[in-house]
Amino acid sequence: KPHQFWETQPMPNINELESLKPGPIQEGILADVRKDPYNLISKFEWCNVDLRNDEQAQQVYTLLKENYVEDDDNMFRFDYSIEFLRWALLPPGQHPDWIVGVKVNQKLVGFITGIPVTLHIENQQTKVKMTEINFLCVHKKIRANRLAPVLIKEITRRVHIKNMWQAVYTAGIVVPTPISQTRYYHRSLNAKKLIEVGFSSLSARQTIARQQKLYKLPEEPKTQGLRPMKKKDVAQVTKLLNEYLKQFKLYFKYTEDEVKHWFLPRKDVISTYVVEKEQGVVTDFLSFYNLPSQVIKNPKHTHLRAAYSYYNVATQTPIVQLMYDALILAKNEGYDVFNALDIMENEKFLKELMFCPGDGQLNYYLYNWKLESNMLKPEEIGIVLV
Ligand SMILES: CCOC(=O)c1cnc2ccc(OC)cc2c1SCCC#N
Predict the structure, then answer these.
(1) Is the CB of 69 under 6 A from ligand 1?
(2) Average pLDDT over the chain, rounded to whole?
(3) Which of 9, 10, 55, 385 could join 26 via S-S bond, C-beta 3.0 to 4.6 A?
(4) Residue 188's beta-bridge partner residues?
């Protein structure tokens, strides 16, 4: 029976979509929260992973590299780097007991994480303090032990115990009940490599040279005043971002500390460029993160270098021009492909900049919250989960 576990969770099911009123589905009662961790089958143990510790970070890296998400054709598997995981999982206000591992004989075989976020939902006046759940992973060799539901229940318990009752997460699969179904788009930067790894294919009339010409980009960005973001830009970027995000139905509210963490450039992790035309005035910014993938069983390539569109705020520069510059910058940083979802204003540049729709979809979920509108359109989503 499908969704055995999800039927037991506070998620609206199909026939409740009409009856439930907007807001929390279940009232959270702190006194009812289990004080001790869920039971694990013998030899399995809970652990809090300290990602600042090189050995423990290496164990997480290897577990994900070998067992985390693959595309439907098993052509790629995400290869999150240790520095990326430290960026993604050690933001301001992080809770050490929200980086949850399961070990067997000191070997990491299961993983799930949460980070604290403040989410603004639809027209609700209040912003909801909640957790963003990510990196649910069970080693391939011990699947079908029903370990994933226990990992989800345990991190839910660790969130409840802090008096938080909602969560936000994404998944490529459909379980009860998505709040939005978005699509990945891909813009080729290295046509030859995408053909060699088998992602792109040539029709009879096409040649590799023709494809390379089609996707060729200028050497340098067009926008005057475009430069890497620096610490001195944090205040202006925070204001621009928080103002920009208000147009969406779902968005995070950022403190300056959070903007420092999420946007200051980190080599091979996050690239952020600001537009400063007039002395000291930042009018726009673009950002993309580095998430390579292992190419599974390919004679010629072991990895794909993929840049993922993060947050882009265009107030003076046309969004198409800003994103064209993002492609040029990503190409110059050595990426093979530039990926983006059809969320926020992305539809405005995807076609014009020659992005192609992928066959993978990304579903957004809210745990224990009924929306006013059952589903949100992709362009109403203002959050990117890495
Ligand atoms: C060339 C276009 O495809 C990808 O970039 C890519 C790379 N690695 C993956 C690993 C797991 C995976 O599992 C869904 C998908 C990919 C994808 S397509 C969806 C991500 C985007 N954009």
Answers:
(1) yes
(2) 96
(3) 10
(4) 337
